[in-house]
Amino acid sequence: MRVAVTGASGFVGGVVVELLLARGHDVLALSRRPVPPRPGLVHRPWDLTTGPLADPPEVDVVVHAAAHVDEWDPWPVHRAVTVDGTGAVLTTWPRARIVLVSSCSVYPLRAPRRPRHHFSEDVAPSRRPLSAYSRAKAAQERVVLDREGTVVLRPHAVHGPGDPTLLPRLARARRGGRLVCPGGPDTLVHLTDVRLVAQAVAAACEIPCGTAVLNVADAAPLRLAAVAAGVAIANRWPERPLFTGSLAAWTAALALEGPARLLRASSPPVLTAYAVSHLAVSRVFDTTLLRERLGVEPGPTDLSRWRPAPTADADGASDDSHP
Description:
This protein is an alpha/beta fold. Mean pLDDT is about 90; it is low at about 310-323. It has a domain at about 1-160 and about 190-220 and about 285-305: Rossmann fold (3-Layer(aba) Sandwich), CATH 3.40.50. It has helices spanning about 10-20, 75-90, 130-145, 165-170, 195-205, 225-235, 245-260, 275-280, 290-295, and strands at about 1-5, 25-30, 40-45, 60-65, 95-100, 120, 150-155, 160, 175, 180, 190, 190-195, 210-215, 220-225, 240-245, 285. Helix 1 (about 10-20) crosses helix 5. It has 9 helices and 16 strands. The strands form 5 sheets. Strands 3-2-1-4-5-7-13 form a 7-stranded parallel sheet, with helices on both faces.
């Protein structure tokens, strides 16, 4: 099968490319930065903000893993890369099947009319997204779902070697011998191994299942206390966890984020509302449809792999690390 992968030099895109090649597919890797040459792989540089790709080769499936992931950047940047860039992808391949790597960040904080922390795919995206990133991912989904046969995959808090987003945030939270955790020890955190995302992508390429939206998450959520302990052990951090509780975390995030935005700070504060939503709010994602439609069985979370990679390559404008 001929598969094009956007965001191929990024955290998620790179793992997807490796698995597709291992399964014997011919891969067209698309990204702003080069990727290592391998048998079966062709790389073409492409900045999605420049519009449709000139003279594109024919492909059977397009895996669209490209998005702007820096939640602190303003909406016009996210719109140009994530939303308008997706339009460029669809224009480039008007007949190819689309597999979109989206994000569970499109969901609201609470699931209505059900246990408040349980999310299945019939929960509508939030009308009040916490960040420009979440807003752009929801808009991106609307664009691709107009094409019949599209599969939208929604991972949450993607982890693994080279994670460019969540692990650096946790590393910045080390203060005075304590690992400050924004939430309570019993908060349920549902993570997604980057290898599971790649498995879901490969299955969506190989198994036509009609138009579908599917959650992608590890077999079971973990208590925040277990996440903090596991990450600390994996990275040899000596700090003891300090749990702030949900209310304190939200209060601190709003107090820090408001002034930073007013001052147009170039980098986000230690806590933002979007970051807190990943660790201070219990959220469990139903993966029944992932198993039924694609035959992908999530495994347990392996926190021992959640550490920096020696040559981690995070392509900030062409990769989705899906928080």
